[in-house]
Design a protein that fits this description.
By secondary structure, the protein is mainly β. About 10% of the residues lie in helices and about 30% in strands.
């Protein structure tokens, strides 16, 4: 569901603190056992998309919050920054900056050294075997927005066909998952070749222009976690996991002989 502007929800943040208030402690990361593997889930939020406020697509850029599990689209407008879209997203299963292939981490980037979109690929027929017993299944939604991530390859923003329950959270092999409807909206309204993409680390909070845009536009969000309360990889491994999806027993190939 795409929403317009709305007012702030009540939170338990310190009103004397200049930063935007943190969400209450009932909004937290949950560890689940998903097809036999540990994953992280968190309360889903509603999407925002305001393409009518966009003035020039080429001035749009993406900022992702690994801490709060959001992908934001902003546009630089008339000396200010306007928030145009916000989507729930899922990151790599492991926290931290990507170091090597197969480490299940999503790489970080900064405003000074952003990633860029290098390809807007049709992924509607792409399949992947997650090793969870479901076999080679459709997994990427309609689009795969490939990123230039120096030192690493194969990282992109895509949909979550057959895995939408994992968004928002941590479950991927390093890519960024959106809900299928949101990757379509992002591709249709905002994404372009060369678009800058910033992926903040797990403990980074809102940037000053983000706080200003959210205050000015009255943007409500469900998740704004205190960096001191987010789960570490060690805490995720030690937590008592909630029940998630389970592997189905393999079908028997034995035939009854008469």
């Amino acid at each position: 569901m795409m929403l317009g502007l709305c007012s702030f929800a009540h939170t338990d943040g310190n009103p004397s603190d200049n930063r935007l208030p943190y969400s209450s402690d009932d909004i937290r990361e949950h560890v689940v056992l998903d097809y036999g593997k540990r994953a992280v889930r968190i309360d889903a939020d509603e999407s925002i998309s305001l393409p009518g406020r966009m003035k020039m697509k080429q001035k749009c850029f993406i900022v992702m919050s690994k801490k709060d599990y959001y992908l934001y689209v902003y546009e630089a407008q008339d000396g200010d920054t306007v928030l145009l879209a916000r989507y729930d997203c899922a990151f790599g299963l492991k926290k931290g900056n990507k170091e090597r292939r197969g480490d299940m981490r999503t790489p970080n980037s900064t405003m000074a050294k952003p990633f860029t979109i290098s390809q807007l690929a049709d992924a509607s027929t792409w399949k992947h075997d997650f090793g969870d017993g479901r076999g080679n299944i459709k997994a990427y939604g309609n689009y795969f927005l490939r990123l230039v991530t120096p030192g690493h390859s194969g990282i992109g923003i895509h949909g979550s066909t057959n895995n939408e329950v994992s968004v928002p959270g941590r479950a991927s092999e390093g890519c960024i998952r959106l809900k299928d409807a949101d990757i379509i909206d992002l591709r249709k309204n905002y994404a372009f070749m060369g678009m800058k993409v910033i992926i903040k680390d797990e403990y980074a909070d809102d940037l000053p222009f983000e706080e200003r845009a959210m205050r000015k536009q009255g943007i409500q969000r469900k998740r704004h976690l205190d960096p001191k309360k987010v789960l570490s990889n060690e805490a995720i491994e030690k937590a008592v996991a909630e029940k998630g999806r389970e592997k189905k027993p393999a079908a028997s190939n034995n035939k009854t002989r008469k």
